[in-house]
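Notebook entry, structure prediction.
Reason for the run: the old model in the group folder had no record of what sequence produced it. Starting over properly, with the input documented here first.
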Amino acid sequence: MAFRILTFNQISPRGLARFPADRYEVGADIAEPDAILVRSAELTGTPIAAAVRAIGRAGVGVNNIPVAEMSRRGVPVFNTPGANANAVKELVLAGLLLAARNIGAAWLFARSLNGDDAAIEEAVEAGKRRFVGFELPGRTLGVVGLGAVGVEVANSALALGMKVLGYDPQLTVQRAWQLSSSAEQALSLDDLFARSDVITVHVPLNEATRALVNAARLELMRPGGTILNFARSAIVDQAAVLAALDAGRLHAYVCDFPRRSLRDHPRVIALPHLGASTGEAEENCAIMVVDQVRAYLEHGDIANAVNFPSVEMARESAFRVAIANANVPNMLGQISTTMAQAGLNIHNMVNKSRGEMAYTLVDVDSTVEQKVIEEIAAIQGVLSVRSIPAES
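New structure, fully documented this time:
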């Protein structure tokens, strides 16, 4: 069985090399692809071929992918949580230090100096008081969102001598195990803002997180606070931050999202979306997403899909069926009955749900004819169905 993979953006060659050349055709001009791989290219509003069975995002955020539409079509959207966590963590720490020591403004000052060395030295001694900063030990970092990046940032800040408050009502068991026991839990977002000297946000952009950092919460912060935003631009109300900076309530705003309103403010450092821009992160994301897409196309297994439950089932036969359907009663009964009527014996079955979506893998004892696939697809609530024969 051969698969066709359409790529948007430049995907790391080390990742693409994990597609076996004898079974995969990969490129930027593939027609009727089985799957799409993308980084930051905007797919919303772009026609997505009916043949597409999966979309893989070599990164974490999926705001550039029409996830709701893909869910209606029974198409999983994969991302790569944790693959670029170290790269983002390092940039967040760099941003923290840039703000603490006023390095951006100090660098611009030093670059503006003219004259011989004696004149420059005199100007340095006269001007350096303008850039007095603060040290990190003993100060409190508030971390909003304790996923892969947030946990790494929290642990690193503790190692630098900071106190850490964390807030994440959806903290997973896996991340809780990774988080240092020295981190303290904030009771609410307002509690976190009121007790933090520096706040860093690591949450996806959605209606609940849009303008999470706003005027009301900035008023709760200790005087001279700093905001770090390496997640998504709209999580922070920029007008509110600029007003707080101008009023002297905030010390600095460091972000990864340049905007015209931020460009000339002396207490803003805006970087050109560098969070995951390391060779290592690009390779890690590409390798992870390729492996996930392969597992889905070849076996129906799902890991790290933002719109599907995680499902993995060891093969018990050469004949497998994968079914995505609305999470409604009696779906398994209808699917099983259809297979039984076709004379198919079920060896193993796994069914899991996530919200309104359910996903089922079924191993059967013989070839699943196209007629049976069509009968299952005709069941009300079935979104997609495909036969996945084992590689011969």
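Summary: The chain is about 30% helix and 20% strand.
The old model has been moved to the deprecated folder.
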